[in-house]
Amino acid sequence: MTGFKRTWTVRFSDTDPFGIAHYPRIVDTLHESSDMFMEEVGFPLWEISLDYDFGLPLVEIDFEFERPMEAGDNIEITITPTLGTRSLRFDYVARNEDGAVTFTGHETRVCASTDDVSSRDLPVELREAIEPYTEG
Which InterPro entries has this protein been placed in (predicted)? Predict the structure, then answer.
């Protein structure tokens, strides 16, 4: 299995006055997608720092529009994770129903100790949970 897929239905509230999905909602959708992925692998972002001695703070996010998305569109978002030694990168590709790419992007999270907020190696159990979704 490579990547994690989810469908985002663009709502009217996600759009600007021209009916096109706007920047802040796409950022929210990226965050929501990584939340869903981490929940799927058994490490919900909202529980990690409570249940373990590390967190995964966001250190970088970026995306590029390829084509507009309108209210009612069903967008399939694929996340492909890449495991670093102390970081985790999610690459995103979003496609509309005809398969055309609507945006691409990425986010990077660093593994940080909850004791002193310094970076640390990704735990083995987290690596093992994410590895099946990587490109290999």
Answer: HotDog_dom_sf
The model's pTM: 0.91
Tens digit of pLDDT for each residue in 21-63?
A: 888 889 999 999 999 999 999 999 999 988 888 999 999 999 9
Q: How far is CA 63 from CA 66, 90, 102, 104, 129, in A?
A: 10, 11, 10, 5, 26
- Fold annotation for 4-130: Thiol Ester Dehydrase; Chain A (3.10.129)
Burial of 56 (0-12, 13-18, 19+ CB in 10 A): buried
Closest by alpha carbon to 77, among 107, 38, 103?
103
Select from 131, 125, 119 the least CA-distant residue to 54: 119
**Nearest CA-CA partner of 120 in 73, 35, 56:** 56
